[in-house]
Each structure stands twice: as C-alpha cells, then as structure tokens.
Amino acid sequence: MSGLQGYPIFQSGMFRASRKRTIPERPRTHLATRPPNLRYQMGGCGIAGCISIQGDRISGEGIMRMLTTMSERENGLGAGYACYGLFPDRRDEFCIQVLFDNEESKCLVEEFLKEHADVRKDERVFTKKVQSLAPPYPLVWRYFIKPADKREWRGNSSLSEEDYVVKLVMHINKSIDGAFCVSSGKDMAVFKGNGYSYEISEFYDIRRYSGQLWISHSRFPTNSPGWWGGAHPIGILDWAVCHNGEITSYGVNKKLVEMAGYECTLLTDTEVIAYMWDLLVRKHELPIPAAAFAMAPWHHSEISRMDPESRLLANALRLTYKEAFLNGPFSIIVGRREPEITMIALADRKKLRPLIVGDSPDHKMVFAASEECAIRSIDAQAETWTPNAGSPMIAQVGKGVIRAGIEPPFLGVVR
Questions:
Q1: Helix (H) or strand (E) holding 357
Q2: Residue ranges per domain, the chain?
C-alpha cells in the first residue's frame, strides 16, 4: 500500500479571515497546506547522511540506498532528502524552494517575492508520477533570489540578508495559503514529501542530482497524519535537520525561538531544532560544540568533575541557554553550508536513540545513520564508531572529521 492509500483525504474548511491575501475557497488535500488540528507527533524514524571530504560530487543514488536500506523504520507517511553543493553556478543566490497546492498560491508567492527581492531565475522542480504514490501531487518550484538592497521589514531597516530571507520564508509559510517554503539556503535544496523513501526519491528522481553533502530522513509517526510540508528534512537558510525521536521540551524550546523572531508553523519539535541551530550558531555566533552542549548539556554532577575552565563554560551555557535544552530522546543529522559545507551528527545526552558514524578507508567519505547497515550498503569497508551521548560528530569539506564525537565537550572550536 502506498504512502497515501488507506488514509483519509483531509479537507481544509474555511480560510483564516485574518489573512489579507487568500485564494478562493475550495476543497483540497494537504500538500503545502498543513492538515487541520495537527498536533505534536511522536515516533521512531530513520536518518542517514554522507559527505565528501574532498568536495567530490556524490550521486543521489548513494543516499537513496542508505535510507531505503532501513525500510523497517518507515511507514510511508513521510521521507525526504537535502543536498548541498547543488547549484555551483548560482552558489551566491538564495534558493527558495516551495510546495504549492495550485497555480493561484504560486502567483501570490511570486508577487510577494518580486516585491521584496530580486528574482534572478525561477524554474519548475522536476517531478514525475510514481505508480505506488497516489495523487494529488504538489507543484514544486524554485526561485533563485538576491535580497533587495533596501531591506525593510515592518519598520526594521537594519536586517542582514540572512535575517531578511528568514522573514520572507516565515511570511510565506504563515500568511500565504496553499504554499510552503521547504528550503531557503544557498547552493542547497530540500526534496521531501508524503510517502515512502523510495517513492519520494522516485518522485523527484533523486538520482539526477549530485552534491558534496546529503542528509535524509524516513518517518514513522504514531499519532498524527503525514503531509508534504511536514516531512523532514526541515530547514531554514542553509541549515537542514533530520531528526529521530521526540522532544518533550518542545513548548519551552518553541518560546525561545519565537522570542527571537522565528514563526513556528509546523507544530513539530524538529522545526524548533532547525531554528535553534540558526539562532545559536549564526546569530549568537557560538562554536558548534558549544551550541551542541547547550542543546544536550551534561548533568551538573558531571560538570562538577570538569577542569575549571570547561566547568565555567558549561555552567554559563546551562544558565544562559536553559530554554535551548532539548529534553527527551533524539538523534539528529544536521547539514550546513556556511562557511564550509558541514555535517553534524548528535544524539541526546542519554543516547536513547541510535546513531552511528563511519569513515571510508581512504578518508574521503564520512557517513552517519541510525543503523550500521545503511553505511555498509554503500561502503562495506568503512570504519564505524558510536559518538558519545550529547557529543557532536563534525565533518567538513576540505578538513575531514573535525570531531569524532568521543572528545571532551569543548575540544575543537568549529565555526
């Protein structure tokens, strides 16, 4: 049975009266539009990622094989892929990739983007019918943009290009019916939807793409419907996050990112994780190991046994970023493009969700996945290890494995 067969077709009801620009009311399935009464979801998932240390291009065939190998971790309600190093000829432009319910919503987004940015190029994202994936399908389009020189948003004229793009994305996702922006970074894009991992890879023909870093996710939710926009990876700017687990601190984490100006429209814990990486590393300029510690801090009894300098930093992070603490079981793979293409793999501080990483014998490729079989499916000779609980593995193009995830918390200052 396909990822959509056997599930009810959710109807949207009336549009919100508070939205100023809407399209005529019509029944529709939930592609770019969030299902009504969507609630926080739990479940186990499969995650996989691979990065070329030398910057060579990796075909989508490899990441597809990694993810589909873990088929027992999915039930057809969502899967997706994110690729970095995808648009080398347009690497200095933001790629806004959007799911649309229909042409009307597409026109509204294009009108909005033309008012607030210089749209250098737009194109339809290649998709094809999949025999096992029941329609309807969303219309998927991408826009390569440069933010306007005069960047003013609701009276604020001092926004950076990145902060301005965040505002554009939040507006599309919150205020334009029938549209959902799935990625907005430079030289990268997200391909995701409501289906099994092999169906989504076929729908977008993932084999046609190649890049220096891939991350991927297959979803096994237990208590909520799947929808195209809610599948992983979830991204903002050049950040993309694939997540297995559930964050019981979602409420307080959501308040933290909302106070910093992010709009949470997905009602999922993964969304706040993505925004938190952007907030802590890009905006607050924390090194990646320090940001990871803020999200998965050591217990106070463990901090008391640190050397004096590390203990001072650990206590400061716990106090300053207490709302960033991700409570609950999780393992995540994070992709990042700036300043160099980077893959981060992190498990919660009690290691309640599986995570394994690997290095190819020639040290040209680094892998991360929920299960070792995913790594062995493309490199049977890879050297594998399990990172410590709450300690990030960090691999970067041109530098290799900067942190294996078995070091003390603050070893290796990574920007």
A1: strand 356-359
A2: 46-403
Judge contact between 297 and 318, C-beta under 8 A: yes
High-pLDDT (> 70) share of the chain, %: 87
pTM: 0.87
Q: Which two tokens stand for residue 216?
A: 């991927």
* Cα–Cα nearest to 193, from 254, 130, 142, 245: 130
Nearest alpha-carbon partner for 215 in 381, 403, 367: 367
- Residue 114, SS3? helix
Q: How many residues does the chain have?
A: 415
Please tell me the distance from the alpha carbon of residue 219 to that of residue 43, in angstroms, as a whole number: 8
Do residues 220 and 59 make contact, with C-beta atoms less than 8 angstroms apart?
no
- Residues 74, 80, 83: CA angle, nearest 5 degrees: 140
How many Cα atoms are found within 13 Å in the side-chain-facing hemisphere of 338? Answer: 17
Cis peptide bond N-terminal to 136, omega within 30: yes
pLDDT band at 219 (very low <50, low <70, confident <90, very high): confident
For the segment 189-201, the average pLDDT, to the nearest whole number, is 95
Q: Look at residue 311 and give its three-state secondary structure.
A: helix
Q: Is 45 a catalytic residue?
A: yes
Report residue 16 CA to chain centroid gap: 27
pLDDT (0 to 100) of residue 35: 65
Is residue 409 scored above 80 in pLDDT? yes
Tokens of 251: 């409420």
pLDDT in tens, 5-17: 333 333 333 223 3
pLDDT at residue 131, as a whole number: 92
Name the active-site residue from 45, 50, 181, 264. 45
CA distances from 228 to 73, 89, 281, 349, 400 (A): 18, 29, 28, 31, 34
CATH architecture of 46-403: 4-Layer Sandwich (3.60)
Q: For residue 154, what pLDDT is reported?
A: 78
